[in-house]
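EAL domain-containing protein, pasting as requested.
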Amino acid sequence: MSAEPDGPEGRLRRFATIWSRAIFPVTATSLTRPEFEQQLVPLARRLRDALQERVFDAKQGQAVGAALIDTHCTDPEALSRTLDCVDAYLVLYCGGDGPREELRARSARVQHAVAAGFAQALRERTLAEQEAISRAALSARSAVAEALHASEARFRAVFHGAAIGIGIADLDGTILEVNDALIRMFGGLESNVRGRNAAEWTHPDDSPHVWKLYEELVRGEREHYRVEKAFYRPDGTVLWTNLTVSLLRDADGLPQYQLALMEDTTERRLLNLRLRYEATHDALTGLPNRTLFFERLEKALAAGDGARFGLCYLDLDGFKTVNDSLGHAAGDRLLVEVADRLQSCATAPGEMVARLGGDEFVALTTGTDTETEVDELAGRIMNALAAPIRVEGRELTVRGSIGIVEGPAGERGAADVLRSADITMYRAKSAGGNRYELADPEADARAITRHGLTTALPAALERGEFFIEYQPLVHLGDGSVRGAEALVRWLHPQHGVIGPDRFIPLAEHTGLIVPLGRWVLEESVRQARLWEGRVLDGGATGPLRVNVNLSPMQLTHPGLVSDTVDILEREGLEPGGLCLEVTESALIGADDDLLKPLRRLAEMGVDIALDDFGTGYSNLANLRRLPVSVLKLDRSFTQSMQHFPADPVDLKIVEGIVSLAHSLDLAVTVEGVETGAQADQLRELGCDTAQGWYYARPGPPDQLHELALADAIS
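Structure tokens follow.
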């Protein structure tokens, strides 16, 4: 069945039609335009795939550029029109429903890849043609030698009829004969070439070995050589050629003449330079792009002893706000102005500025004293951004965060240097922005470790690397164990046991906290049910309650209530055996929608504890509207009670909180109890339960059973 006219395939073919109409007039092909369009359809499909792929692959675009050469689209105008079509229509017809900003950025990268593939394929085709010319040149040498010995007429026919430039010189280098093609290369006058000496045609771009090869040839030490060489024309312009010089010997085998074959490659070289420029420079700002920057950085890092480098990694603060409020056109004008200002900051030898993409720029300085130079460069950049930029009649204040990496060459690779600069830049941004920070290896290591832990979290849950320790909750009145708080740990293969303070924020950031929290709840409820059976058998008066922490992200998850009910029913634990702890900060200003799941759980009989109470500065009057039954007093209020006498102010505060809580029918639990004096003081103040190292450190579930059994026996 054919694709719908307005479906993805239909839009793809519409793009192929526009493309074929644009480049068919400049394509050397015997096909009709509809036939040529059919050849472009699979290429258009590859462009669409490159645009829509999750991870950009430059090989798709490069393959399209190379395929253009295979379809005889070798005219530079064909490439120019192709890039125009991709820029104007690829996102429109092949972009799908993706974000336009990202698609436009991806389209620019696709264009660069197509240009690079076109240039590489054209270069390979050129090399193949040059090889054919070389073979023709060698054949011509044999033919010329034979003609000199056999027939002057045949020699003249080959010599003057050749399409490439041919010249004959004696061993001293004096030009004796030239054909019409060579004369045209040098301006059309025979006097510009004939009679001159080859030694006069030196050029500053000559590689050092060119004249060494020439000397070896005239001495008879080699038969021929081939080089790329530039010549000055009489009008001062430069002629670039592929030059093949061969030695002609007489009948006795002695050197007699030089035969030079020249192919004019000036236009091809200019095209390659243009394509190279487009492939290595940012289309919007004209600055070097990521490709060229990495080439320069790798060269700087490969310099010899004593060489150093300094790198400034800049990211504009709040640039997304400009795009969202004023539009991408205004954002582009802002980036162009920023690029101009940055360019003016890096004018000294060894300095360069590049745009990596989006609003990220880099500045590189090299030399022997980059420790001072990179600081000065960063200062110039911050000063350059200080003045407002006028865009669409508005003056925009530009702020930037800079990460600086400086050091000796040869110690690190380009990717490591840029990663360190990126990490440092984000450290400057997190410190408030509009500043620069120096790279710190320890901070880099911590950031890399955080990243490694973040990426390892999903697999860690699947492999069962998490385990739970339990810290007893003790009744202050009679000292009996009433339950325990479940505390999750990560047994990392390399880092050992990792506490929740290190990986819970990472899990919340990645969204893994929901499945991890569900696992912790399920394991804790199962353990509470085991305790219930064992402790009752041992003679205890009631079940042990388990406290499980909930993160703010779990509170907003729609499956919180259903998951909790399902786990309790599946494990056979009564709702009263579970207490869910929620931090005070998570409930500050909470609306009814956020509180609704907690109210439903509380109505079922699940206890809700307000954890870290006293750290969130909440309005105490709001306690009445929260579905909580327990206040867990933060340890900061009771630290002064570890020794006698306690701070009277802290005593008054705790006494007031306990009195308020009891008046609202709320139980009070205290965390961080570490001494007997502290426990006695809290008991006198009326606190209900406590936990801390004074009673037991977090440990395996059997520890709690032993404590509870001891209480039952006593």
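Note for the archive: Residues 558 and 597 are 9 Å apart (CA to CA).
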